[in-house]
Amino acid sequence: MDRMASLGVLSSGIAHEIRNPLAGIKAMAQTLEEELEGNTTHIEYVERILRQVNRMDNLLKAFFSYAKPKRPDPSAVHVKKIIMEVMPLFERKMRDENITVRQHYDNDLYKIYVDINQIEQVFINLMINAFDAIGRDGTVTIRAENAKYPQPLIDRRNRVPNIFSNRYIQITISDSGSGIPAEIREKIFNPFFTTKSNGTGLGLAIVYQIIKEHGGQIEVKSWPDKGSEFTILLPAAMEEVDFIE
Ligand SMILES: Nc1ncnc2c1ncn2[C@@H]1O[C@H](COP(=O)(O)OP(=O)(O)O)[C@@H](O)[C@H]1O
Ligand SMILES: [Mg+2]
């Protein structure tokens, strides 16, 4: 096993061992929180402990999904269905921070052929970043359309060789946020790269890993102070094989 791989095994082992005592701390803090009800000064300390414990736990969870990626288990699903699953997580933030989310779906949009849980994670990570970049008052726009990249692949028998080799769905998520400075644009997909004081730098690394495992692509464009746009290509699920005459 090479050095990086064994380091990965070692660190995910340690991360795993940290989660048990962390769960213990969390359980005790929650009990204390219940018993302190009414004592406003002390309850705030306990709430702070819980917030930090949750933060650590989320970091460990993110680390696991990066260090131990799962193989996608794909099925045919509408993009819209996945977005609808994800939206409720952001409703509170949309209200509190006055952020509008717009959605546009092509008519006759093909389904995508993906692991639903993993692609949910992709949209969650991208939406969190969009909300972070906006802060307050802005818009996130999600757009999905059929795309063909690259030119259709045709095999010797003039038949499309593979149900998802040549047809893709293009999904863009754009925000009216701060934008990404040109000098860091190369680094944003690197694990642990973050510009946030409480960031993990794992969100986009996980997104990149998942998209790559799906045979997709991701690109980013950004305009300082105007916003950013992430474009994803994911394989379409074609109900029937196309024959080319
Ligand atoms: N939509 C966005 N707008 C502006 N900057 C972004 C956006 N998405 C990502 N970034 C930049 O990329 C960095 C890495 O993102 P990510 O991997 O999700 O980690 P984190 O969100 O924990 O910092 C962020 O810290 C931020 O600087
Ligand atoms: Mg993030």
Description of the molecule:
Strand 6 (217-223) and strand 7 (227-237) form a beta hairpin. With 245 residues, the chain is α+β, with helices and mostly antiparallel strands. Strands 1, 2, 3, 4, 5, 6 and 7 form a seven-stranded mixed beta sheet that branches. The protein has six helices and seven strands, in the order H-H-E-H-H-E-E-H-E-E-H-E-E. The termini are far apart. 43% of the residues lie in helices and 20% in strands. The model is unreliable at 151-164 and 240-245 (pLDDT under 50). Helix 1 (3-35) packs antiparallel against helix 2, helix 3 (79-86) packs across helix 5 (116-134) and helix 5 (116-134) packs antiparallel against helix 6 (203-213). The protein binds adenosine-5'-diphosphate and magnesium ion. Residues 125, 129-130, 133, 175, 177-178, 180, 188, 193-196, 199-205, 228 line the site of adenosine-5'-diphosphate.
**Which structural class matches the secondary elements?**
alpha+beta
Amount of helix: 40-55%
Which residues form runs of ≥5 with pLDDT under 50?
Answer: 151-164, 240-245
CATH class category of the largest domain:
Alpha Beta
CATH superfamily of the largest domain: Histidine kinase-like ATPase, C-terminal domain
The H-and-E topology, N to C, reads as HHEHHEEHEEHEE
The average pLDDT value, as a whole number, equals 87
The ligands bound in this entry are: adenosine-5'-diphosphate, magnesium ion
Biggest β-sheet: count, sense, barrel? 7 strands, mixed
Radius of gyration: 21 Å
Under CATH, the topology of the largest domain can be stated as Heat Shock Protein 90
